Amino acid sequence: MRFWSDLRRILWNDKPALVGGIIVLIYVLMAIFGPMLVHISSVQNASDAYAGPSPQHLLGTDALGQDVLAQIIVGCRPIMIVGVVSAVITVVVGVVIGLVSGYVGGFTDSALMRVTDVFLTVPGLPLIIMIAAIVHTTNPLVLALILSVTAWPGLARAIRSQALSLRSSDFIEAARLQGLGLGNIVGRQLLPNVGPYVAIHFLLGITGAIYAQVGLFLLGIAPISGTNWGIMINLAMSQGALYTPGSALYLFSPMAAIVILQVAFVFFSRALDSVFNPRLRVQ
Amino acid sequence: MVQYILKRLGISLAIIYIVLTVSFFMVRLMPGNPMAALEAQLRVQGGMTEQEIEQRVQTVYGLMPKAPLGTQYLDYLGNILHGNLGRPITNPSTTVVAVIGSALPWTILVVAVSLLISFVIGVYIGNRMAVHPGSTFAKVWTFIVSVMGAVPSYLVAIVLLYFLTGIWRVFPSNGAYDVGVTPGFNWPFISSVAYHAVLPIAASVITSFGGWALAMKGSAVSVLGSEYVRAAEARGLSDRVISRSYIGRNSMLPMITQLALAVGFMFGGSVFVETYFQYPGIGYYMVQSVNSRDYSLMMGCFVLITTAVVVANFLVDLLYPAVDPRIAWPSSRKVAATGGEPTTETVALVAQGGV
Amino acid sequence: MTMPLTVNAPVDSNAAPFLAVEHLTVAFGDTATAVKAVDDVSLTISRGEILALVGESGCGKSTLGYSLLGIVPPPGKATEGSIRFKGRDVVRLSKHEFDTMRGRDISMVFQGAMNAFNPVLTIGAQVEHILDAHPEVYPQRAEGRAYFNHLLHLVQLQPDRIWRSFESQLSGGMKQRVAIAVALLLKPELVILDEPTTALDVLNQRLVIDVLKDLHAELGTTVLFVTHDLAVVAELATRVAVMYAGKLVETGTVDEIFTRGGRRHPYVAALIDAIPSVLKSGLTVRPIGGSVPSLADPPPGCRFAPRCRLAEPECHVTEPPLLGDRHGHRVACHVINRSLEGLSQ
User: Fold this and answer.
1) Which residues of C are less than 8 Å from B235 in CB distance?
2) Are B354 and A124 within 8 A, CB to CB?
3) What is the pTM of this model?
4) Which ipTM did the prediction report?
5) Distance (Å, whole) CA B253 – CA B257
6) Residue B168 burial by Cβ neighbours in a 10 Å radius (0-12, 13-18, 19+)
7) Which architecture does CATH list for C19-264?
8) What pLDDT digit, counting tens, does each position of A151-209 carry?
9) Closest residue by Cα to residue C56 from C295, C254, C242
10) C104, B236 contact by CB (below 8 A)
């Protein structure tokens, strides 16, 4: 397939993007298999608190003497699940609203676009914080839903403008003249053309959801239960990591895990953008 | 022109109205709605008659809990028109408006200054990247900017706190100014304010100038490739005139539209920055109110942050016709204000702004 | 199609050429994989004439026009040959020398004249930029403005209204005419018009052609006219140069090229056949089969050979030389040139 060969060639020429892709892959594998292979020991040993790196504890230990690396690995899955589910919801909502708005037009279009404008204007993070505070959920799916509340409007607008320009293009007109139904036109003709936007917004949706999600855990707005990177940082900070010299590894390990993943996503999505963007592809 | 301003004003007011309405029904109708929760809480505490409880709820929310929903809604809108957002649950002796009023200037200070600094740095770097593609400058900064754009602001805040207030005590870790100084137009106060604002501003700037640089680069690249720049060269205009009046002005247009999005993003981000630096702005109070279940204060903060963002958007809308004649003098031909298909850069900015 | 009855500007073939392009090659990219958009092209323009440079899109005709002004977009640059204009080799001018020459000696109306104006400045402000860049032409700004108003009258536009307008307030045809007036502002000796009628509807095409005819009659400016529209060529040009895939294949006067049964390159013959004729009944358009070969990998021999009806084995091997008769009518074709005696390079 053209897409895969282009992607391979661009990844090969753009080393940062290749590294980014590999890192994302490693994180995905870690989220899937990590909890099966690694367990956080239930033994709590205060005398072992804030131990430095050692063969038993590669990244040292936390305030309870538990292994930091194990927590990092186990904490990957909840973060990734919420990120991916939120991005899926974002993409589905954005594509449906964008396509319907652009294709149906008229009153439906202006009504949907007004709603989109409101969501585009209202600052997302405070809205998420408020909803999360009222709903107060521990269910990752509900959390993902809350995070995607403010993420879809950008995609909806991009898809709508694509749908608008495609609607007036000849091949859609031809499909309509042939008597093909709305579902057929949208599914067979429009969706393939908006694919690039969907793919890139999906990746950006994951990074956005991870950003907001970790933020909620840091602020203590999402309930603290289980283990994930946001909770780790929250606990480290509330246990006085700033003024406890030995806790640097415990504080910075989850932060590094997040930063590396976010940067990897950005570089990988850059490669995807080059695949889809013919202007860049020429070079 | 007048029509344009009225239309923008109408949209702004409509958005504020919608936000107010949604906030109201969220408080009233959500599962575990805060008003009922407060009633229940007061009942559990005991020592209050039903009437006293009802009165307390009314002072906090400014509404009669037993009244029909429609009446409550109208009362709520009426209260807001009179500048009454109720009283904080945790401190009923003051008003929500008073708390927010004291917090807003600090948030505006930090948001405005960091927006200005990151805009100037980002536009400068983005422009250099576009004008000299393939240079070492462009390569190095493309990398730095992509990495910095991906780092969450709260993590930068933690790193700054760790090194500059924890390990080396260079900067203060909380407050907007020293307790010892008298607020007013005097040097100790101003310098203390500036000193306390350095870290919050730094955290915002470090994480946001990259977005500006990428957006500016994309915009400048498309302007550099445009016909009118080539035509200006063919007319023998000097490089100075071309870069200022032809490239500069046109590539700044999309940046001004982005300003509107960025204001919202920065206000949102202030929640983290202010909380971590314990800087008494609206974001700080919003998180405080959430963690102490002070819903009336939380609503007030949310309504005010939204209003501030809508007002900022409106100001940008007013600014726009001054720089783009296509808005001020609309023609029969539809001209896209920014043009060009969205690139990752613009998409990334939009996506971040949407979070 | 209307045939010109007379050629209005007689060509003085004895005088030194006003502008001479000699063996010019313009390449894009580094030498190993360079795409030669213009490949060893030689032609001359005489003072006062309208030379039409004709060819399909992508044949290098616009690139040739850009190289006269030194504005070939990077990575393209003139790698071989010279362009002699007023005793100087344009290819070797410094950037500063180019700046003073551009607009004043040679000016250009771009293909996308629709987008030739800065959208955020009034036309007047942009004209003032030009006057400021060349103060030697009009020591008083007012003189320049008066001459611009005169030009706007000539192109049938209202000066005051245009001066205050932004480009978004003008229609396509108006913008095209303003662009032509702007190009003539500094009284240049040579104007390059790149596809001046292509983006316009039929009525505006008509108007622009009439305006160009009037202007040439009034000002006598030398014009290099880049187009793919042979019907316009027949009406406006005095001489024609035809390019195919980076190569010059034929040059001659309009009469020589359009006269029925004359000596003609098979590509040019095909182009003329492809002009729809309203005089003949029914569809007589004969499109040319195939498409222009890739400039990155041109075929050996004659570049038109793969599409040529007359092609012989030799055509696929040897490149045909551009041979001229005693009138200077030059054709690059093995088959056509074979039947004639006394041709020279």
Assistant:
1) 102-103, 107, 129-130, 133, 182
2) yes
3) 0.76
4) 0.82
5) 7
6) exposed
7) 3-Layer(aba) Sandwich (3.40)
8) 888 888 888 887 777 766 666 667 667 766 666 666 666 666 677 778 888 888 898 89
9) C242
10) yes
